[in-house]
Amino acid sequence: MLYPQRFSQFTREHADTVAALLCGLLLFLGWFALHLGALGLAFLLLPAAYVIGGYQSAREGLTTLFKEKELDVDLLMIVAAIGAASLGLWRGEYHLIIDGAILILIFAISGALEGYAMQRTERSIRSLMSLTPDTARVLHQGREEEVPISQLKVGDEIVVKPGELIPTDGIILSGYSTLNQAAITGESLPVEKTVGAEVFAGTLNGYGALQIKVHKPAQSSLIVRVIRLVEQAQTEAPPSQEFIDRFEKGYAKVIVVAGILLATLPPFLWGWDWETTIYRALTFLVVASPCALMAAIMPTLLSGIANGARQGILFKNGAQLEKIGKVRAIAFDKTGTLTTGQVQVFQVISVSEYTQINVLKTAASVESYSEHPIGKAIVQAAGNLDWVGAVQVQAIPGQGIMGIAQEQQVIVGNAVFVQQYVTNLPEELREMAQSLEQEGKTVVWVAQGNRGAEVMGIIAIADEVRVEAAVTITRLKKLGIEQIVMLTGDNQETAYSIAKAVGIDQVYAQLLPEDKLNVIRRLQQQYQTVAMVGDGINDAPALAQASVGIAMGISGSDVALETADIVLMADRLEKIAVAIHLGRRSQSIVKQNIFVALGFIMLLLVGNFLGNINLPIGVIGHEGSTVLVTLSGLRLLK
Question: Rounded to two decimals, what is the model's pTM?
Answer without folding.
Answer: 0.62
